[in-house]
Design a protein that fits this description.
The chain is of the alpha+beta class. It contains 14 helices and eleven strands. The protein folds into three domains: about 90 residues, PH-domain like; about 35 residues; about 210 residues, no CATH class. Strand 3 and strand 4 form a beta hairpin. The longest helix has about 30 residues. The chain is elongated, with a radius of gyration of 33 Å. Bound molecules: zinc ion. It is an enzyme of class 3 (hydrolase).
Length: about 350
């Protein structure tokens, strides 16, 4: 008889097409499994790949069918599962797992989900607001310089706009930004490359505009100023800081529940790509749109020049409407109406 240390499981062995059984042990040998009888004689041998294991269904005995058609049967389901797992098989049956899901476990899982939803809906927004409130100015500066230098190494390239062209755009930008609260605002020109026609605000007041967006405007500098005013609105409202904290909070929540978060939080906090991947909420977009109207009017320019920008986006980017500008600033169709209504109400 095989020694206990080698035995995977004990059970009965049935010759092919026979119901006469013999007590047997299932024993491994390099790349093979052997059914060994009580007298120590090998009853059947198969290479592992030629064996077939029945799925686990509750406490029903497991059947392992050898290449010669003989069958080893055992009630020791756990031993077989253990062997299958340790040898890299993936045949632990789903039916078994479902059956094992006790109602109490389901209730517990449901409670955990509800708790997660509750934190996400109610506690997280409050924590985000608190974090924004107590954030020292150095944090947005660090996030911004980190994000911009990452983007400069990856997506962005130095601008090809002439000094003269930049000066004209900066002059309008400064007129708009002078009406804004807090922060010092600075405009940065870059070739967008992969991110194409785009403008985005970093949390410390640095705003990036791509040559591609300037080209898209086709000389309508007032429209560019309106887009930049919208970005200033995002900085004023601390929208990107909120998005970053929210993403970090969600990642932390996932970590609490799942026990693993990977490098998500770190990516969001230090990588420019993470920053760009965060889309603003619709509420943040509406707020920035309204700020664009106010700031443009204060600067003596067309308050609703931003509407022309949406038209230009729709017209010129119709073929690839999933541009990053639209995906990070969602909700374009309704926004034009909202902007026009807001202007009418605030004139
Ligand atoms: Zn926006």
């Amino acid at each position: 008889m095989a020694s206990d240390s080698e035995v995977i499981a004990r059970g009965d062995w049935y010759p092919a097409h026979s119901s006469r059984s013999a007590a047997a042990a299932l024993v491994p040998r390099t790349g093979e499994l052997i059914a060994i009888g009580a007298d120590g004689v090998a009853l059947s041998v198969s290479v592992v790949s030629a064996l077939s294991f029945s799925s686990r269904v509750g406490a029903i005995p497991r059947r392992i069918i050898f290449a010669d058609g003989s069958v080893f049967e055992t009630a020791d389901n756990d031993a077989i599962d253990h062997y299958l797992r340790s040898s890299g098989h993936k045949s632990v049956s789903c039916a078994y797992r479902l059956e094992k899901l006790h109602p109490r476990i389901l209730v517990f899982a449901l409670l955990v989900i509800l708790l997660g939803v509750g934190i996400y809906r109610y506690a997280l927004p409050a924590l985000v607001e608190l974090a924004v409130l107590v954030t020292p100015p150095i944090v947005p500066e660090l996030i911004s310089s980190g994000a911009l230098s990452t983007l400069d190494k990856t997506a962005l390239a130095p601008t090809r706009l002439s000094e003269h062209r930049q000066k004209i755009i900066v002059e309008r930008f400064e007129r708009v930004a002078s009406g804004a609260e807090g922060e010092s605002y600075k405009l940065n020109f870059r070739v967008g490359g992969l991110i194409g026609p785009n403008a985005f605000a970093l949390p410390d007041g640095n705003i990036v505009i791509t040559d591609e967006l300037v080209a898209l405007a086709g000389g309508d500098d007032e429209m560019l100023a309106a887009v930049l005013a919208h970005e200033v609105g995002h900085v004023e409202g601390k929208h990107s800081l909120r998005q970053i904290y929210r993403a970090a909070g969600v990642a932390g929540l996932v970590m609490l529940i799942a026990g693993d978060v990977g490098s998500g939080v770190e990516d969001v906090l230090t990588q420019g790509g993470g920053l760009l991947a965060l889309s603003y909420s619709r509420a943040a977009e509406s707020e920035a749109d309204r700020r664009s109207v106010d700031l443009m009017r204060n600067a003596g320019m067309d308050p609703v020049a931003l509407v022309r920008f949406f038209d230009a986006l729709e017209e010129k980017l119709a073929d690839h409407s999933r541009t990053s500008m639209l995906s990070t600033h969602p909700g374009t169709p309704d926004r034009k109406d909202a902007i026009l209504k807001y202007r009418a109400g605030s004139d």
